[in-house]
Each structure stands twice: as C-alpha cells, then as structure tokens.
Amino acid sequence: MMNWLKSLVEVLTSEEVMRPLILVGISLLWRSMAEAKADKALSNLAVDVVDYIEEHYKEWGIKRDQKMARFIEIFGEEFKKAVGRQPNEAEINTARLKAEAQVQRARRVQIKK
C-alpha cells in the first residue's frame, strides 16, 4: 500500500510536473500584480484627472458633457502611461463612476461651507 503513495509523491515532485506548476504559479502571481497595478492606477488617476479638469475647464471653454469627454480622453492617456495599455470598457466605466463620485463629494463640501 505504501508503494503507490511513494510512487505518487515521486511523480508529483518530478521535474516534469513541478516545472509547469511553477510556471502556472508565476503566471498567476504576475497577473494579479498587473491587475493590482491597474486598479491602483485607476483609482489614483480618476481623482487626479477630475481635479485637473476642474482647475482648467473654464480656460478650455468646456461645460458639462464636454468635461466627461475630456476626462475619458485624459484618463485613457494617463492610464496607458501608467499601466502600459489602454483601459478596457469596464475600467473606463469604473473611472467614470469614481469621477462622478469625486465631483459629488466636492459639491457637498461646497454646499456645507
């Protein structure tokens, strides 16, 4: 009975099995690090781009919907610089929601003053 267990351990710890498992593990780790980097960039950039647009929209002569269009344009450029790829549709939608929330928070602060 112990021979089959010994054989199983030898097969599972063999180089032919361990090498692909290590590669899969490294790939998963790499992917999760890339996703974490993208998530962090998304959160930071959304707030920074909103602040930048709020500071400059009057001199650019843009209003309302144009501000969101400019946000998406600038966000896409900055995201690509930070992450190395264009944001996908879900990331753009998340950034849009974060931007709108940031603007609402700023409005609430102004109303309380």
Task: Describe this structure in a few short sentences.
The chain has 113 residues and is mainly α. It has helices at 2-12, 15-60, 64-83, 89-112.
SSE layout and pairing:
Layout: H1 2-12, H2 15-60, H3 64-83, H4 89-112
Query: Structural class, please?
Result: mainly alpha
* Largest sheet entry: none
Run of helices and strands: HHHH
Number of strand segments: 0
Fraction of residues in helix: over 70%
Outline, from the CA principal axes?
elongated
Number of helices: 4
Radius of gyration: 24 Å
Average pLDDT, rounded to a whole number, is: 88
- State which percent range the strand residues make up: under 5%
Low-confidence runs of at least 5 consecutive residues: none
Intertermini distance? 78 Å
Explain what the structure shows:
- By secondary structure, the protein is mainly α.
- The chain is 89% helix and 0% strand.
- The chain is built from four helices and no strands.
- It has helices spanning 2-12, 15-60, 64-83, 89-112.
- Helix 2 packs antiparallel against helix 3, helix 2 (15-60) crosses helix 4 and helix 3 (64-83) packs across helix 4.
- The longest helix has 46 residues, at 15-60.
- It starts with a helix and ends with a helix.
- The model has no long low-confidence stretch (mean pLDDT 88).
